[in-house]
Amino acid sequence: MLLYAAIPIIGALIGYVTKRVAIEMMFRPARRTFGWQGVVPKHRGRIAGIAAELLTTRLIDPREVLDRIDVDRINTEIEQPLLNAVDAIARDVITEHHPNVWEALPPLAQDMVIKQVQAATPRVVAQTLSELRENIDAVVDVKQFALAQLTKDDDRLVRIVRELARPELTFIARSGIWFGFVIGVAQAVVWALTKEPLVMPLFGAAIGLFTDWLAITLVFRPRQPVWRLQGSFHRRRAEVAHRYARLIADEVLTVPNMLAAVLSGPRADRMLSLIQDVVADAVNEQTRAFRPLGRRVAVGHLHRAAALKAMPMIPHTARRANGYLTNAMDVAGMIERRMLALPADEYESVLRPAFKQEEPKLIVVGGVIGAIIGELQLLLLLVG
Fold first, then answer.
1. Which backbone phi and psi does 197 adopt, to 5 degrees?
2. Which residues is 33 bridged to in the sheet?
3. Strand (E) positions, 127-219?
């Protein structure tokens, strides 16, 4: 009797073990080993591509994000580092391109020129931000930027998917215990009536196959409540939206990452041109300080020189405003609100591709493991 009573317990064990194996096979190993690579690492390009497409077409509007920035607040936040940067850039550019003119000026006059340029910087910041809002698509490919960030290292996407799906993964593992136990009861009854040796491995395989399929299916189905039953991922939409928004805002669409994409991405030359045009007005206006010397200063090439020196200094200069920019742009809030409004199929695409790509293989592996454990059950019963 004890051996018969053990059959459902072993069924529950099969259910749990096959689920744990399936879960780990989704994420491990990171690189191909013995012919297998974790589903998420193997297909991270495709999974990241779907995520980037959803982010940039449905969840994020770059212009709306930039419109939330108060330029006066930015100028206040970065006032001192901005003045220091302008001082260094102006002195370097003028010394490099017009050393004789600059050296001919007394120190008081040099300081006057620098202060005039510094006085123009709030307007330069405002005009640059305005131009960026109008030309954001020309300056940065937001979809490619998001894709690059999601695939930047082997761990980032795995970490995001695992964190987002943690309750679902726990549900899958625990459901295997109950499904396996119920099928194990039926297995014990059939064995008691037939004593057929094939019952054990066949039921073991069935437990592995069916419970893997059922557990994954119940994560996403039904999409809408049916008799109080709803897929756990859809039931948790509010929680998922909040968590996903925070993960993306904290790891992908951060202020430093976005600045880097604008300043050094594939379209950085467009940003350089934009800054050059804005700086041109300020340089043209401030070069009248040289006129008392009776010298003619060619300023055309100063524009590009000033823009080139400004580009790498922007991230450091803007660092003090990172906190304000993060709060003002509210990327997390925008993603969360828009996720809550998505149709069920689009919302599901946040996680479903991670399961779907190799789902049949994971289910088959569960069946094979179940059959092996079932065969071991048979040996135990025959010995007993």
1. -60, -30
2. 36
3. none
